Request: fold
Amino acid sequence: MLRTLFERTPRLNGSDAALMRKEIQGYFHSTFDRYEQLFEVLACDQAYYVKPIPLRHPLIFYLGHTATFFINKLMLANLVQERINPEFESMFAVGVDEMSWDDLHDAHYDWPQVSEVKAYRVAVRAAVDQVILTAPLTLPIDWNNPWWTLLMGIEHERIHLETSSVLIRQHALPFVNPHPAWEPCHRTAAAPANGLVNVSAGTVRLGKGKDDPTYGWDNEYGCHEASVQTFQTSRYLVSNREFLSFVEADGYTLDDFWEDEGRAWKNHTRADFPTFWIRDGSNWRLRLMLEEVPMRWDWPVEVNYHEAKAFCNWKQEQLGQPVRLPTEDEWYRLYDTAGLGEVPSDRAAAANIHLDHYASPCPVTEFRHGELYDVIGNVWQWTETPIYPFDGFQVHPHYDDFTTPTFDDRHNLIKGGSWIACGNESLRSSRYAFRRHFFQHAGFRYVISEAPVALPSSRYETDRLLSEYAEFHYGDEYFGVPNFPKALAQLAVQAMGDKPARKALDLGCAAGRATFELAQHFEHVTGIDFSARFIGLATEFAQQGVLRYTLTDEGELVFYRERKLADLGLDEVRRKVEFLQGDACNLKPMLTGYDLILAANLIDRLYSPLTFLSTVHERITPGGLLLIASPYTWLEEHTKRKEWIGGFKKDGESFTTLAGLKEVLGRHFRLIAGPLEVPFVIRETRRKFQHTLSETTIWEKIG
Amino acid sequence: MLRTLFERTPRLNGSDAALMRKEIQGYFHSTFDRYEQLFEVLACDQAYYVKPIPLRHPLIFYLGHTATFFINKLMLANLVQERINPEFESMFAVGVDEMSWDDLHDAHYDWPQVSEVKAYRVAVRAAVDQVILTAPLTLPIDWNNPWWTLLMGIEHERIHLETSSVLIRQHALPFVNPHPAWEPCHRTAAAPANGLVNVSAGTVRLGKGKDDPTYGWDNEYGCHEASVQTFQTSRYLVSNREFLSFVEADGYTLDDFWEDEGRAWKNHTRADFPTFWIRDGSNWRLRLMLEEVPMRWDWPVEVNYHEAKAFCNWKQEQLGQPVRLPTEDEWYRLYDTAGLGEVPSDRAAAANIHLDHYASPCPVTEFRHGELYDVIGNVWQWTETPIYPFDGFQVHPHYDDFTTPTFDDRHNLIKGGSWIACGNESLRSSRYAFRRHFFQHAGFRYVISEAPVALPSSRYETDRLLSEYAEFHYGDEYFGVPNFPKALAQLAVQAMGDKPARKALDLGCAAGRATFELAQHFEHVTGIDFSARFIGLATEFAQQGVLRYTLTDEGELVFYRERKLADLGLDEVRRKVEFLQGDACNLKPMLTGYDLILAANLIDRLYSPLTFLSTVHERITPGGLLLIASPYTWLEEHTKRKEWIGGFKKDGESFTTLAGLKEVLGRHFRLIAGPLEVPFVIRETRRKFQHTLSETTIWEKIG
Reply:
């Protein structure tokens, strides 16, 4: 066991500012020191400059990174006014993410000497101390408090304490030395036979309140509640021994057990056993952070999501039962039923976590939590759940890209923490997610459940057109112009009077707002658009009730927006709408019998508006209505010149689109309202907008 | 002499509606009848279908055209509600202009029988009669009166009476027969020796008032006043005999006497003498409308502008004096000094005009007007002046393309009328213009004058971008957003306080509005833009004081706009501005010493904004100001990503353009005002606008 407890993340709701300064300084120092202590294991300066793995920076970067982060963020918070070393604060600022291929070309970097970086860290420590000692402090320290950003810096360094420890574990053995402050567990025995434990059904509540007294990352806030069905789970984390059966069953040779993405990873990397295993003739050894040891069969296996999932698929075949990883909700059910609490501040945790026990994993039999072992601690546990935002998610203005780039359905949550999960990482509410092929100090336990895995929508729509239309339909009003699809739906409903309101069709529905709005009056509304991407967006909104997208601020800068059907008063009508991809010039015959067809900003986008206009009466009930709104922006790219229905000289005279509409529709319709100009605004950037008037006419089908 | 006088264009300011109906009916009938009588000269039905010249429709088109014009225009005026024959009213509506290549392919037309068109004309006559007898009539009939459009139809047919007579004259002789109603002049004698007459200097006033009692075409209205220097003019129109000297001097063989455009015409058509001349061995004959006769040497030669101009150039060489055609202003000086008046309604004109005398030209010695002959009548006289709009020009809403397409500097005015110029064509105020290579019953007289020919600007800017910017800078306000360049100039001037205001630079001046506005405060302002087209537009505006452009209404439909510096209160500052083409990233060294540089919507269009921003201080006087306004719409097409000065993540943090400006400009400037958002609107169509906010900052150069 390590000698002293590593400081816990402070409670920020105290009322004594002097005490709070002291506590924060202690938390800062312990973190800063422990981080530097980690680098003491490096055997030589060269160890700082040789990359442990090709796709990540060498360790010198990480030594500098956590220090520059303090300065960069504290400048944003206006707690620091002057840079210490602008060059370092640029060089060490970005490049953490393994996918930044561009920034990782060695030629771009001329790393400074280790001594220079260490000297820089000394200067940063002094600057942060200065802040802690002198900056104005109003308690409590909450999300909006400038000091929150100071905590952000400390917790950020704690995350890197763990991730750097992984990199060190991946470094070549000659580059690292054992170290008394990083003593691994020495206990090992035969692995236990795993067993299954029943977990009763129940409700889990996730999400941290803004009044919670501890620091949290953006993704932890908001709320999420779910009913979890009964399921079974493995008593122990899967041990190296248990995983060996999969390896020996040719698990890495056969493709069958692997999901597509996992198979691609396996075949690309040519993995044939877990990454920290070492084959030694007919024996196996295990790489720990600083040494190689004989295989610890009763310790948890450490794998990425793909390997864990392949094991489950193999196990399912063995058992003939539905085996998979737990979802995030299910993991919380384990936590709740095990009766766990937060890591205590006054004694060692009853789990291999927070560096309270070892600088390595330990046997899966060592920490019992109710009927299970290792619900928290030892190694992180992969889940089936890609990280997603809870209801009420907001980004913190000083770190708007902490989580949002991972809302991409490609980053899965890991839960429970590892032996080196400290500070925020050790809290029940913490949520970390990594790419599924990524290695951390992470393993897994499996569950048996018939319940399908609900994959919550996490994705932010970033396609420029879709995002602009999402905002156009569901976002803010600009220049005082009322929401356009809503205004048209209201005009249509008003014109309907007490006519039958059975079915309506929203042709060219785009992001679908008018479809929802019409469903407040009609029994059923179909939204159709030529673009499958729009249909995907609208369908997802109808299903999830929430829509997330990025909006361009200026240049490449974006911000994040979330809209909910419920907030728009449209949650009730979700069951009354459907969205289909279709071509207004060639609709399926079944799409008929509508009491209203709404065609907003459609006709000047069609390749043959005449085809649409001359047949649309066939789809409308007698006495039914057709609403057409268009700015008549005829463009060759959408509609060949010869297909325009107006906007040109005809027989020498100006022939407007309205005249064309009257000519074509006049045979089957009577103009009952309009023309009137309905404005709309499409936001392109924070400062650039399209501001357009759409000429609106309402036509009644002649009985 | 023809038996009865052909009705004169009526005075529309009577007070007796019944009498007015009667007079208009008489005018309509005489016109409609006389037009049909012209077609009586055609020898057979085939004569209607064979084209007299390849680039124009056959005569059947013209027989139908003037009738359909009545119906099409009266429908616009809402005086007729029902079409008579929609097919005819489309087929015969357009295709008058010889340049409509597309519409002239024979395959497109399946012309109706002559009898069908004649029957149609009978129906139209009845319909128009019905209008004249029954439509509500409020006197007087002015430009805004629906009946104006009825007069438009009649005067339109009178124009075609003349142009069709030209086509008939161009028809092969077997297709035409002499006709008692179309008797040519039979008198001829030896041609007179031409001489020069002095014309004293004086002022001419052109332009018809809206209160004039006769019908006029759009181009006649407004006002134009000019001082005409003294000049000499030929006493007679140039006769066939006088022109023969040019032909015999190899005038058509040698290129030297021809202007570029005329030389191209001559060499393309291989003309070697006037088009109605016929070479008969060593003799010459002359084609009249319906017959060939021995050359009439004392009749006026009939040529196009190019031939007339080449003759003048030859004559100039002969005389060693500056010989050219008269300008429109000079022609009015002839008219005024000859003491002429309008064609009388109760007796034959004292000129070969209005069909009062012959269905052909006559000797140039026959009609004396003061010291000159044929100031009006006989044949039209080409001028040096391309048609242009008078101040106050407006299009008539029922015929917006009567004149506007000819405001292109390629259509020259002809003056004075011919033997068949009737109705409006015979008035002093009438203005007709044709392409310079076109044949009418037109010849010329020449003048000797040292005065240069002022070519008034007639062109409507139709380039979409330039027109949009012309409207953006000088046009209407939309959505209540004040004029943007004016607002910026005001902000700059306000910030100047009482600093020295010697020189200002408007960088990225576009259409130049801010340049003019700044010149109200500064002694001299230079507008610079990268686009030579913008510089051309702004320079023309500064020189002419008037700017004309078309604005897109919807699709291909446009309308015409005119703006004047005087109306904007900017006429006085014309002398204080200059416009130069230049590159803001690479300005000439001489452009320096400015008390103010204004850079509106510039920096996010530059290929290297940093180059501009980091050197601009060198061009500003100490204490001088720099105003930057931009929506920061960074686009790769203008500015490569690596050249952006903000709008991206830098060292992991959002780095706005404003932050970039502060960083770059901070070395030499102090931010003294802003940022504030100044809005602007760019109109694209009647219904589509860009609505943008431009972030504005004002910087003072440090001492």
In short: Chain A touches chain B through 46 residues (CB under 8 Å).
